[in-house]
Design brief:
Layout (H helix, E strand, L loop, with lengths): L7 H4 L16 E6 L2 E6 L8 E11 L2 E9 L9 E3 L4 E7 L3 E8 L6 H6 L15 E7 L4 H7 L1 H8 L3 E3 L10 H10 L3 H7 L13 H7 L3 E6 L21 E2 L1 H10 L1 E3 L5 E3 L2 E2 H16 L4 E7 L10 H17 L6 E6 L16 H6 L5 E4 L2 H6 L1 H9 L7 H8 L10 H11 L40 E2 L5 H18 L10 E13 L2 E14 L4 E9 L2 E4 L4 E2 L24
Parallel strand pairs: 8-15, 8-16, 10-11, 10-15
Antiparallel strand pairs: 1-2, 2-5, 3-4, 3-6, 6-7, 9-17, 12-13, 13-14, 16-17, 18-19, 19-20, 20-21, 21-22, 21-23
Length: about 575
């Protein structure tokens, strides 16, 4: 694999993006201080203005509720300053035609009474010596090498902080949901579907990290910079109740439905701010509160960077400024920061970087960097020594999950505790059955391979696939097994869903485990009848038995528009309606 960020494949596609700035200059600004929440106009030469505002609140993850609408009393027909009573406000101004239509949002401290009703403890102090705050900065479709080439100023800043880069961090899923759910829950996507995903209650019952941190006395926050590709709302039902103390989606939904303006490179604006900037502002609005209390925050950027190779350069300066603000406020002194991605760039057409050999090698090696306060190594030398050693070991999102579980209780990082936990990990009983997730403050065993780490064969960089004839008996058996599993999924909705049969095998690859000759895997792409649906799955053979390794993915669009005959998002992509 090429280890240079600037190989020939890169240089051919490397140029600076232009015209990614929002066209508005921002006529209205929001202010939040101890005296209240306000909207006010910036200096402007316009006259004869008429303005109004709309206050909304979250109803569901897909709909907001209008609380009230009011005309704004103008000063000299050209400006205003007014107090608002709501957390999400849309302001509209016109002087003959609309010229401003923007959403503003505010964050407020979690209610003490509400925490008490929920049985949650008091918020921990931000300077508690027994814990660390956690800030997860997620970048969609960014490999480790691409982070080095695209965000050079941010990376240079990180070089001046205590940090560890995980060169052996491996992708574990085909989609963002499948890749990130192990980090956030410790489960895989199939376990989420089987044990806690509910078509009515959504993902509320799932064991997300923010629940554990809430129970440890942390403020919690979740935000992303998109609506149409949401981690938990793209082909998923989202959450019935607001999942975290601070939740950006309702405000962003109002922007998406009422004010969005598309600019180039797959990005959108809310007046003067791109959605990426909106997400940064979401963090900045919380900083006065984070200075006082422990917090867990998960932020996820997708727009632009998801599919445009050069877009990381657009985010570089804003991220550098973010780190500078965190340092100036002293938040870096009490916070573990995880910079992470789901996989490398994989979307794009044949003329883009994603089609090159270099991109194919990077796609299974996403970004993972942990930055920590300098005092952590002084207080817990053995734990941090292991963290650094693991930079060259095979690690996954499951391990990151296990690592973050240590943050509310730093006593688990004491040298004596680390030695005890390491001995348990080295037990002969565990050599062939290691935990799926291992805290990176413990030594990851050198003998760990992709199977032990629960890395699907198609994402394993430790070995390469070999071709296998489509008519091979094991390919045929595996193809029929995939169809059987699909039919089991739709059986409860048959009819109207039709049971499927195999039309033909489209692709097949054989994967062997490096340390186990009794086990192999076949990755298949099959086409089914009726409807010519195309699906991909991995079937694991162990001697004479076989099982699915991961979920079955749909590859092509559903021309049958199955959702018209069933209302079950868990199976509708497998359903061909009568």
């Amino acid at each position: 694999m090429t280890t240079s960020p600037y190989c020939p494949d890169v240089r051919y596609h490397w140029w600076e993006l232009r015209n990614y700035i929002c066209p508005s200059e921002g006529f209205v600004e929001s202010i939040h201080n101890e005296s209240g929440k306000y909207l006010k106009t910036r200096d402007d030469n316009r006259t004869d203005l008429n303005c109004s505002y709309y206050v909304v609140e979250r109803k569901t993850d897909f709909e907001n509720r209008l609380l009230y609408h009011q005309e704004i009393e103008m000063l000299d027909r050209r400006s205003f300053e007014m107090e608002v009573h709501g957390d999400i406000v849309r302001a509209v101004c016109f002087n003959g035609s609309d010229f401003y239509n923007g959403v503003h949002f505010f964050v407020k401290k979690p209610s003490v009474k509400r925490r008490r009703r929920q049985g949650l403890p008091k918020l921990q102090s931000a300077t508690s010596p027994d814990s660390l705050s956690v800030l997860i900065l997620g970048l969609d479709s960014v490999s480790h090498l691409h982070f080095l080439r695209a965000m050079v100023h941010t990376y240079a800043f990180l070089q001046n902080l205590p940090h560890v880069e995980f060169m052996g961090f491996s992708r574990v899923g085909s989609s963002s949901f499948e890749s990130m759910i192990p980090l956030l829950t410790g489960w895989n996507s199939q376990e989420i579907k089987d044990f806690c995903l509910d078509s009515k209650r959504g993902l509320d019952r799932c064991p997300f990290l923010w629940k554990m941190f809430q129970n440890a006395g942390y403020e919690t926050a979740f935000g992303e910079d998109n609506i149409d590709m949401g981690l938990f709302t793209l082909d998923k039902p989202g959450f019935e109740h607001q999942p975290t103390d601070y939740y950006l989606r309702p405000a962003l939904l109002e922007m998406w439905q009422q004010t969005r303006k598309k600019i180039r490179h797959g990005a959108y604006c809310n007046e003067e701010d791109t959605y990426a900037t909106v997400l940064l502002n979401f963090l900045y609005k919380q900083l006065p509160l984070h200075e006082r209390h422990r917090f867990f925050s998960f932020l996820w950027w997708t727009q632009g960077i998801h599919a445009v190779f050069q877009y990381g350069r657009v985010l570089d300066k804003p991220f550098l400024e973010m780190f500078q603000k965190l340092m100036a406020r002293g938040i870096l002194n009490n916070t573990l920061i995880l910079f992470v991605s789901n996989y490398g760039l994989k979307d794009g057409d044949s003329n883009t970087f994603s089609a090159t050999n270099q991109a194919q090698m990077e796609v299974s090696q996403p970004l993972a960097i942990i930055s920590y306060p300098e005092w952590l190594e002084e207080r817990y030398p053995l734990a941090v020594k292991n963290l650094k050693m693991n930079s060259r070991r095979l690690v996954t999102a499951y391990d990151l999950h296990a690592t973050l579980l240590d943050m509310p209780h730093l006593a688990a990082l004491e040298d004596q505790e680390i030695r005890l936990r390491s001995q348990q990990l080295e037990s002969p009983l565990l050599k062939e059955d290691l935990p799926r997730g291992i805290s990176l403050f413990l030594p990851i065993p050198e003998q760990r391979d992709c199977s032990m780490a629960h890395i699907p064969a198609e994402y394993c960089m430790c070995h390469k696939p070999s071709s296998i004839p489509f008519k091979d008996i094991n390919v045929v058996r595996a193809a029929r097994f995939i169809i059987l599993q699909i039919n089991k999924l739709v059986a409860s909705n048959h009819p109207p869903c039709q049971l499927l049969s195999l039309d033909r095998v489209l692709a097949a690859e054989l994967w062997h485990r490096s340390l186990d000759q009794h086990q192999s895997e076949i990755r298949l792409q099959v086409q089914t009848l009726p409807g010519l649906g195309q699906f991909e799955g991995v079937v694991r053979f162990t001697d004479y038995t076989f099982a699915l390794n991961g979920p079955i993915r749909r590859l092509n669009e559903d021309a049958n528009e199955s959702s018209y005959c069933i209302q079950n998002i868990l199976i509708e992509k497998y359903c061909f309606c009568r």
